[in-house]
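User: Predict structure, ligand magnesium ion.
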Amino acid sequence: MTDTAHAPADAPRKRSLLETLEVDTRLLGMIGAFIVLCLIFNFVTDGRFLTARNIFNLTIQTVSVAIMATGMVFIIVTRHIDLSVGSLLATCSAFMAMAQTVWLPNALGLELGSAAIAPLAIILGLIVGALIGAFHGWLVGYLTIPAFIVTLGGLLVWRNAAWYLTNGQTIGPLDETYNLFGGTNGTLGPTWSWIFGIAAAIAAVAILFSSRRNKVSHEFPVKPLWAEVSLAAIVVAAILGFIAILNSYEVPTARLERLFEARGEVMPEGFTTGYGLPISVLLLIIVAIVMTVVAQRTRLGRYIFATGGNPDAADLSGINTRLLTVKIFALMGFLCALSAVVASARLTFHSNDIGTLDELRVIAAAVIGGTALSGGIGTIYGAILGALIMQSLQSGMAMVGVDAPFQNIVVGSVLVIAVLIDIIYRKRTGAH
Amino acid sequence: MAEDRGTPLVELNDISISFGGIKAVDHVSVDLYPGEVVGLLGHNGAGKSTLIKCLSGAYQKDSGEIRIRGQKVEINNPRDARAHNIETIYQTLALADNLDAASNLFLGREITTATGLVDDAAMEAETRKIMARLNPNFRKFSSPVSALSGGQRQSVAIARAVYFNAKILIMDEPTAALGPQETQMVAELIQELKRQGLGIFLIDHDVHQVKALCDRAAVMKNGKLVGVVNVDEVSTDDILAMIIAGKKPEHLAA
Ligand SMILES: Nc1ncnc2c1ncn2[C@@H]1O[C@H](COP(=O)(O)OP(=O)(O)OP(=O)(O)O)[C@@H](O)[C@H]1O
Ligand SMILES: [Mg+2]
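Assistant: Predicted complex:
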């Protein structure tokens, strides 16, 4: 025991600036790497990488993998793995495509395009995804088959189950309401995007200060007020800046004309409007918030991290770790189905190869985002940022004109190097 | 002498459990009365931890019965044990290294807000209160327990066991990693809990500690019970002889 008995609780040593501000240095490093990456691509492409158009495309391309990566965090945190997410996405996509084009119209006499089709197909698809995931979880948790094996099997089974659902055919075009989740076809438009952005900014500030008040009321240490205010300012600027960029990407005139025509109106002369926030990105934001709350503020999340840190301790604390495994895999399946909606709506059809190799992208996103394969550590925002970095790398290289094979070589190398950096970082900071 | 004390709090009757071919616990019977501390002694691998794990729900006994206040009970998992107000400090401590002290203390029994979300601030405040009694030097409330010393980790495990108003407390070498001051505080804690009427099983290799804290001592060897003695009626040498030779001392073997 060191002799600190008489020192006041929080003053005994000088704290560095970063410590005082309670900044997550790992997150800071990732954001820094991401910014550097963007600037390099922007330089090499003569400014084409950081245009509103490309940023818009980048965000909608990231959504599907990012949604699944949030679920993969829980899987990996509990020391499991899921190699079947790409195939599961394909099965859910095939199921929902068949539901909206064949089964529901035949069974209920609904036409494609009628209001009930999209919600029904999506709800059924989400249920199917969750059930398949739960089945995986049962095999892992109750029959104690390693997750690696269960989901390696699942990788083959569900890819080909999808094939049988559609007889190997491409199914489309899909329902128009359904396609709203795809990105370009469904955006909020400038007004609603601003409303959303301002609401989000207010909510973020409110959360920051209510957590500060909570700490003060328990007499826990808080960071200096100026730091809290600057952090709030940065968050607000980031949210509103993002909305401004998405709003400044203008819908092409030809497309606008078609939209007006479809509504039986004539487009006013000189009319322009921006896309604004895509519904798919809104979906990702909602998923990110819900998953973060689950991870940090619910018992389920607490048990997930406890089990990952020490499965025996979790068991001895009365946590039903088998049922927990079922829940985590069911959640993963649910998120695969949600990603299936986004992925097939973006294409406006279901194709056999949808989601191919997604398992690798999703695992890479989670791992680059700081999820430790040894379990117990990982964050939702990290995984999403990981997905964004992966996607930027891929799109940027495509834009620069790097050959497809070499793109894969780079992505593979980046994954390995990112994990190496993470290992070194954790050793330095003494975190495990 | 046991008859005039009413019903025992815990009766472990004829408990056996084996792993593969090894009989880790072989027809052992021990009981525990309210306000009593029973020491469990024996060489490494004698079966002490295995015996108490049958009571704490970590293992399922192969045969035998467990009675609590005279009622036969089935303890199939740690949740069942907690439901009977049995709390355990495991030899391995059973802490989730990646979580902080408060999250470990409340693991499985989190304090929640009105909206059902975990209330970390309230849990940390409670943790500060209990740690102030157990280990006043403890400061690291926001670090993961992997960043704590062995003794600090042990304090967290002890805090967890005593926080939830246990009626039956199982302590498997609770002071193995503690400094002298902290060991003294745990000794005082045990005496206070005893006065409150708890029954405590204490596993400890320190015979003097057992003599000082326990009312009775049960000695095990190779999975079998050597005997149970009142500590006032034997010397530390007698107890050591039981542990090493596996026989009750002559003057008690009646
Ligand atoms: N899960 C298990 N699987 C197989 N064998 C086990 C298991 N748990 C305990 N054993 C065996 O049971 C016997 C008793 O072990 P136990 O842990 O109860 O000893 P102990 O008396 O607590 O020893 P120590 O003083 O070293 O803590 C040992 O031979 C041990 O190897
Ligand atoms: Mg032991």
